[in-house]
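DM from R.C. (forwarded with permission)

"hey, sorry to bug you on a friday — could you get me a structure for this? deadline for the figure draft is monday and I only need the backbone to look sensible"
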Amino acid sequence: MKNNSELLQKAKGYAFLLLKFRLRSEREIRERLQRKKFSAEIVQEALSFLKEKSFLDDALFAREWISSRLKRPLALRRIGQELEAKGISEKIIQSQLGEAAKGYCEGAVIQQLAEEKIEKLRGIEPRKAKQRVYSYLLRRGFSPEAIIDAMNNQSFDVPRPKGRGLLRIDTERRF
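My reply, with the result:
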């Protein structure tokens, strides 16, 4: 049986391996160490060490997570839900989302995403296109009210381009 210092070193090594790929929340590291069957005492010591040496910081993790997710782009509401699922405290989520919201215009983001999606849906019946855009934006985390407001300014009557993407099927010809 290994002694505690060896187990602690192994737990720290595994935590560093996880942090090597991307920042992680305290809860993520805790759960991964527990999955590896480290005792609660070893897990707590490893987490304390990581926090003490500034390798584990939930506020920094939240800031970086928000930054990377806004490049996608997603709604702040959805990003907040993701952070909550990763074990970030409500206080940290609110402060970091508040900072990110200063340069964020939800209406403009919805408008841009809707325009891009409409362009991809050329030639589809307007009612179907509208439903697909609405569903797409909902999955991105935007509120139904904000989506409807933005979609009221959109035109879904995008004609199919002539000669491109058309497949002619000859149904009269038998083989």
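R.C.: lifesaver. The chain has three domains: 4-52, 58-101, 106-151.
me: no worries. The first helix runs from residue 4 to 21.
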